[in-house]
Each structure stands twice: as C-alpha cells, then as structure tokens.
Inverse folding.
C-alpha cells in the first residue's frame, strides 16, 4: 500500500515567474523510506510543505495515508509528523516545556503530555538538558528535540526536510542513528536531503529531483548502475600523465577523464582491468601515487542525469533563507 | 469550540512560560513605560502649565497609559514575525489544532502582559503624584477601556507580524505608525498649538479620544483637546468604544484569513 502519493504537483511563485514544482510525482510504500534528493531550489521543501498541508499546490493531487491533503488537511495532520530544516521549537523555553506544550496541542492530557515528554527526552538522550532553554543546545541537540516534537503522537508517516543540514559530522552521525531506529519501528518516512551520502545511507528508494520534477528514481544501486559500472582511477606524477592516459584508454575503450594528476575511465571487468593497468605501468616503469576502482557516487549519478553538478538552480521562495553556497 | 479555546490557552501559557524563563523580558517591557512616566513628569512637567489641580501629572498619566498600550502592538508583531521566521508557525500549522488558535492565544498572552504593564505604570504614577479623583468604579472602567483598546490594537500587530518577512522590519514599521499617532494627539500637549489641519487629525485620532476618555473617567475636565470642537473630542467615550469595535471587526477577520493562507 502506498502511504504517500503525489501526482503532477505544480506550484509557482511570484505569479508564475518562479516554478518551484513542475509536475512532480512520487509515492512512498508503507513502512519504507523514500529519499528525495536534489540541490537547493529543486523543490524539496515545497514538496514536503504541500504533503504536510502547509501549502496548496496550483494543480495536481496528493494523498497521505489515503487522505486527500487539499480536501481534508485536518485529517492528514492527525497522521503525520513533520520536522523541518530549522529546529521549529520555542528557543526561550526548555526542551521539556516544548515537548509538554506540543503534547497539549495534540490534545494529550496534562499527565500524558508530561509522561510522553519525559519518555522522548530519555529516548533522544536529552534528559540532562531537559530543563535548559533550547538556545543553549548544540545544533544536533536542537534537531533531536525537533524530531522528538514531531513524534509525540507516534505518527505513522513522518516527513523530515533536510534533517541534517548544517550539522557537524558528529551531529549528522547521531541523527542518522536516531532516524535508523525510527525506521526499524516501522514508520513510513519521506526524507529530503542534498547530501547524496545521506540518501544512500537511509533510504530504501531514492527520487532524484531537479527543477521541480523527479528526474530518476530507484534504489541507490540501480541509480548507480545508470551511470555505468566502475571506473578505473590512477593518480601519477604529472610527467607520466600522457603515458598513463594511453594505458587507461586502451584498457577502457572509452573516453578518459584527465585531471591534474589523475586519469579515470569506465571499465567493464573491474579487478581484471586493474591488474592489467598495473602490469602495463610496471612495464613502463611508472609508479602510481594512487590506483583503484571507484564505484560511482551519487554525485556522479546526479551529474550524469542532469548534465550539471548538484547546484542551486532557482531561489526557493517562502522567505526562508537557505544555508549553503550560492551558485 | 472547546478545543479552540484549549489550544489558544496552551499558546497563551507558552508566552507566560517565556516570561518565567526569561524574566529580563518582563523587566524591559515594564521599564520603558516607567521611564516615560518619570521623564515626562520631571523633565516636561515643570515647564508645562496645565492649570490642573494636582499638576501636569494628572493629564500626563492617561496619555502615557494609552501610549504604552499602543506601543505593545509592535511587540505582538515582532513576536509573531519571529515565530514565523523560525518555522515555529509552520510546526503549529502542521498540528491538528484549531485554526486561529495560535494567533488568538498570542493576543490573550499580550493582553495579560498589558494588564501587568498597566498595573506597574499605575503604581509608578501614584508614586509621582497621580491621583484619580473619580472613585473606584470609574477608575476601574478606565482601565477596562485601556485593556480593550490594547486588545483591539494587538490584532493590528498580528496582521503586521503575519505580513512581513523580517522581525526587524516590523519593529520599525510599528514605531513609524505608533510614534506619530501617539504624539499627534492630546496625550502630552494641548492640540491648540497645532496647525488647524493637524488639530482635526489629532482630535479624530483614536489615541486622543482614548486619552480624553480616560481623563474623563479619572475625574478630569476635558483638557488638552476639544479645540476644534469636533464630534470625537466632544464624545470621547463613545468614539473610543466605536474605534475599538471597528478595529476588532476589521482586523480579527483579516488576521485569521491571513494566517490561514499565509504561505500560499
């Protein structure tokens, strides 16, 4: 059963000047994780906001847990949890205050709200910080608290919009652990990210979006296959570059890609081709600085699908400034 | 309906908790009005001949009450704009709570804060010689009026807060509106000295009618106004009540509509 379905969503801003979504369709099978991967401005946040009933599409259709998000937003809200790019909690209040407040807003009783807050603080390793104002929290702690706030009524469907943007590597690892735990508990998750590695780690299936539409979808492996198999990559002193380029070209039979000191090209037979390259280089008395087979990364996937590297395309509206570099 | 009130009260409680967690907020929101009381009382009070028994402070206090209540409009707007910017409003809107509860709750919270600020100012006023002479009922009624005026204005603050992207913008806009409104009035000086056109403006200005109404309810003659003999200056109580009703009738529906559609 599909927990989330979006069909042909279109959303424009500034009277049609900026097309945030251009016929986007996707779906998420119950109990699985869909990673929505794309650069800033691709339409990730707009998609999540429509599915979470915060925004109405210009056209198109979407259901969450079988409920139409446009016709019955109130019913959808009872089924979902949402955690955005920014920790959307009251920073002057303590973590405990926030969770109890959200519990009350979900219409839990006073005692149930308190119990649930304590339980979530414990689970997300925030018990010690529970009585401190959020503004004293680290970025990772804020995100965990924000996530906790979206789990108060144990939603079956969870939307996480760039849950690790802006976190340091340690915070990101922690957050991944937390999300993996949740997924084990059977929640259906739609996660957006601009980190290719993150989608690879967390998602069962990945939808790559660019300029408001899904340009590819599949498992991480199947997407990687689309870019072709492995690449042979050899790094040498610049003086040896031409000779090595010759060797690689001969083995690969495809066009090579030459960097300052690195030559790479797709190969068909993996380790066999690697051995052959080593033998040829030995004969030519060239010592590689580095040599290896590289499986394509999702960065390569993006490049081959869109013809451009993952970069910001349009400014995402909504008055929210994005973190991260400009074009 | 019961849920709506419950949800709004949770939001109100959040604001009170903020004050408990950051007591400085409370201190600063009461210091400014107290400062105004002292400044006007001791800096200008000596040179303004009010011809009023009990001195200028009797005329001054109603003016400062109204001014302070009007200034809280900006605080409402700034608070809401910040919540929006931080994504907190998005979070609230993704919850299964009643429409409007978030903004209604905020107006309740700001109203409670207004009560406190008015109380602190009344004490400060009393300390520097302000003495209402009309008796407890009329005096209380004046405060009820001030409270209602503040509540009506807070809805302008809500609409402003929902309409801008930056909290700092709304702060400046709030100041740009409330500052002339409070000074182009009878709050601190008689309108007689103003050019004729401004006199009319000043006498129709809700701040003036509120100030005149409060003066009347505190037991003063209608001073500092009524120079152009306009209807509002003759009937400050009625006009003020009308303004309060009008403000709410216009800004409550507009704000609620804006809140529902704000990101579309």
């Amino acid at each position: 059963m599909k927990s989330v379905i979006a069909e042909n969503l279109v959303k424009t801003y500034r009277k049609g000047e900026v097309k945030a979504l251009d016929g986007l369709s996707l779906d998420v099978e119950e109990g699985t994780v869909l990673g929505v991967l794309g650069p800033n401005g691709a339409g990730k946040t707009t998609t999540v906001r429509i599915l979470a009933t915060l925004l109405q599409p210009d056209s198109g259709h979407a259901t969450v847990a079988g409920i139409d998000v446009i016709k019955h937003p109130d019913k959808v809200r009872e089924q979902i949890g949402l955690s955005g790019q920014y920790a959307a909690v009251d920073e002057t209040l303590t973590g405990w205050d926030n969770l109890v407040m959200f519990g009350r807003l979900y219409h839990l009783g006073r005692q149930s709200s308190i119990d649930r807050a304590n339980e979530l603080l414990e689970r997300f390793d925030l018990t010690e910080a529970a009585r401190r104002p959020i503004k004293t929290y680290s970025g990772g702690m804020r995100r965990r608290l924000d996530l906790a706030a979206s789990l108060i009524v144990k939603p079956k469907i969870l939307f996480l919009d760039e849950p690790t943007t802006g976190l340091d590597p340690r915070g990101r690892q922690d957050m991944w652990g937390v999300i993996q735990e949740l997924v084990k508990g059977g929640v259906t998750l739609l996660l957006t990210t601009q980190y290719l590695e993150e989608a690879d780690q967390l998602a069962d299936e990945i939808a790559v979006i660019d300029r408001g539409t899904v340009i590819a979808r599949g498992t991480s492996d199947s997407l990687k296959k689309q870019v072709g198999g492995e690449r042979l990559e050899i790094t040498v002193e610049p003086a040896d570059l031409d000779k090595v380029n010759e060797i690689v070209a001969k083995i690969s039979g495809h066009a090579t890609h030459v960097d300052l000191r690195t030559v790479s090209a797709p190969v068909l037979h993996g380790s066999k081709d690697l051995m052959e390259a080593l033998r040829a280089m030995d004969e030519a008395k060239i010592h590689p600085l580095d040599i290896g087979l590289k499986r394509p990364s999702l960065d390569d996937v993006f490049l081959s699908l869109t013809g451009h590297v993952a970069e910001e395309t349009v400014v995402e509206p909504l008055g929210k400034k994005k973190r991260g570099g400009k074009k | 309906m019961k849920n709506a009130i419950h949800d709004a009260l949770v939001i109100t409680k959040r604001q009170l908790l903020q004050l408990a967690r950051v007591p400085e907020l409370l201190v600063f929101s009461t210091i400014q009005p107290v400062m105004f009381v002292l400044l006007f009382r001791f800096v200008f009070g000596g040179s303004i001949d009010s011809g009023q028994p009990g001195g200028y402070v009797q005329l001054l206090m109603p003016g400062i009450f109204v001014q302070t209540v009007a200034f809280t409009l900006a605080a409402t707007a700034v608070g809401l704009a910040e919540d929006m910017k931080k994504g907190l409003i998005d979070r609230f809107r993704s919850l299964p709570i009643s429409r409007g509860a978030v903004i209604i709750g905020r107006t309740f919270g700001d109203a409670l804060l207004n009560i406190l600020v008015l109380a602190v100012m009344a004490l400060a006023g009393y300390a520097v010689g302000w003495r209402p002479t009309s008796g407890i009922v009329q005096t209380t009624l004046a405060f009820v009026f001030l409270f209602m005026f503040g509540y009506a204005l807070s809805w302008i603050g809500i609409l402003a807060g929902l309409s801008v992207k930056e909290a700092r913008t709304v702060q400046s806009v709030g100041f740009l509106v409330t500052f002339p409104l409070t000074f182009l009035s009878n709050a601190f000086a008689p309108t007689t000295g103003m050019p004729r056109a401004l006199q009319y403006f000043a006498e129709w200005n809700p701040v003036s009618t509120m100030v005149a109404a409060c003066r009347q309810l505190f037991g003063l003659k209608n001073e500092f106004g009524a120079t152009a003999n306009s209807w509002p200056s003759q009937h400050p109580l009625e006009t003020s009540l009308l303004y309060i009703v009008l403000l709410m009738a216009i800004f409550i529906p507009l704000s609620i509509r804006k809140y529902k559609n704000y990101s579309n």
